[in-house]
Amino acid sequence: MERHVELGGVRSWYGEQGAGDPLVLLHPGLVDARAFGPNLAAWSARFHTFTPERRGHGHTPDVAGPLTFEQMARDTVAFIDTVVGRPTRLLGVSDGAIVALLTAVRRPDLVTRLVLIAGPAHHDGWLPEAIDPANEAPEFMHAAYGEVSPDGIDHYPVVLRKMAETHRHEPTLTPADLGAVTCRTLVMVGDDDEVRLEHAIDMYRGLPDGELAVVPGTSHGLLVEKPELCNRMILDFLEHEAVPTVAPIRRRAGAKA
Question: For tag attachment on the chain, is the N or C end more exposed, with fewer CB atoms within 10 Å?
Fold first, then answer.
């Protein structure tokens, strides 16, 4: 089911599937909700899924001025408040993970469980080559944008330039910011990801209730490369409580990360 909602003055598109507890899914940057193609059916079989497309992405038009993660997080807060109507599980991928994390930092009361896939807490967490402004977007990304964007395919280079600038300066979350996330959080990356593995480990350690998954033999496209494995891990995290561990170190009572 496809719907629209006004978020921050922008007529924003979202998809809606399934039934049960809500799960909001935030797609990667420079693409749209179709990026969840290998995963959405499995997740929607267990949850009531929402797939909002952020300003300048997919069916949602661009706006004058910069595209910032902070504004996208404000839009996500408004989406949860107005469309979902209650606290929710929240999952984001790449740029979507940044937006999800910012949402949980700014409004921890709205997020009951958080999945951060292949996205950094600080722009220094990217490998430099991953956000090099000289990178050319593949032709299929141009074509996919043109298929659904109300702004037309010729506007895609504008969005590319805006997001290249944003990646240079955002996000800038600190360890203290990570400490404000109150829910269980899964940090997931590929072992050959665009996010530095050391940064992902620092995120995991900085989150009060963090868990870490490094998916072997995958890259930044881990959800597409090993969808069944990723789906199993994500659903296990989203559906079940944490198990008691036999020999905890980081999680033992009173331990410091």
Answer: N
